[in-house]
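Open question from group meeting: does this chain pack into something compact, or does most of it stay loose? Before anyone orders reagents, we agreed to write out a predicted structure and look at it together. Recording both the input and the output here so the notebook holds the full record.
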Amino acid sequence: MKTVSVIIPCYNEEATIGLLLEAICGQTYPREFIEVIIADGISTDQTRNVINKYVLQYPGLFLKIVDNPRRIIPAALNTAIRASTGEIILRLDAHSIPRQDYIERSVKNLELGLGDNVGGVWMIEPGGEGWMAKSISLAAAHPLGVGDAMYRLGTSAGVVDTVPFGAFYRSTLEQVGGYDESLLTNEDYELNTRIRMSGRRVYLDPEIRSVYYARANLAQLAHQYWRYGYWKYRMLKRYPSTLRWRQAIPPVFVLGILILILAGIWLPVARWFLLGGLLFYIGVLMATSITRAIKGNNFLLILGVPLAIATMHCCWGSGFLWSLATSIFEPRKRS
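Structure tokens returned:
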């Protein structure tokens, strides 16, 4: 039986860290072969008190907290890895809830040699109360919102570009170099890119499941997707061959709108193209939300889901374009 180190980046997660620890304690994998390393960004809420409560409640679970003063996820993960001792490293998130057999299935897939990083799918749940939080969770699992990201949509097992979180042999991480601390987001995708470039495989098993809580409101969603877009360009600048069609659409969409707005100052035809394009876009989004509204018996979703998807597209695309623009001028600033 192999030892497993569960590494968790954490900062001010008092609402969900207890649910995660409860899920880890309830795993089918023997508890004596599990250690939990939480890299905490010096939380200012009750996160540490909640963690300490579980240390007392489950004395058979080895749990260790290490400080992450930089408060960025890649640094937290590398810090946790250095403090860990397991043969297998399994990365989770402080607001995720793994299914009971999550660790067992991850280890089994690694032992079978199906992949060098093994992961599963997200079952996305609302991060708050109300119709907007529900709309955001539906948008985060919709193909129009996330493209062909198989870890949100996948129903079949196989080799993929990336998986959320993941489980690796320690030797794999040592050989590819751990997480890149110069990226504030996209750290999982970047690591998986290096894994694939080294000739290894990233494997998705749809039976490896975890609940993931989406953002609770549009402001949080906008901030999240702006960061995703901004740091995705920084990653693609290093690995341009990893660009996928779903990643190109939002910046092209936002750029197209900006061009038509500027052209419309002088050309009336550009205004008509802009109006027609936006009406078509809104119509497609609303049409896709009708079945979900009927199924959920909540017709506010007809408004909420399009708003959430549009927020994801516009903020991701704007963040990407801003990162591109600032990257162009960075060498001039240094000179």
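Observations to bring back to the group:
The chain has a mean pLDDT of 91.
The longest strand covers residues 202-213.
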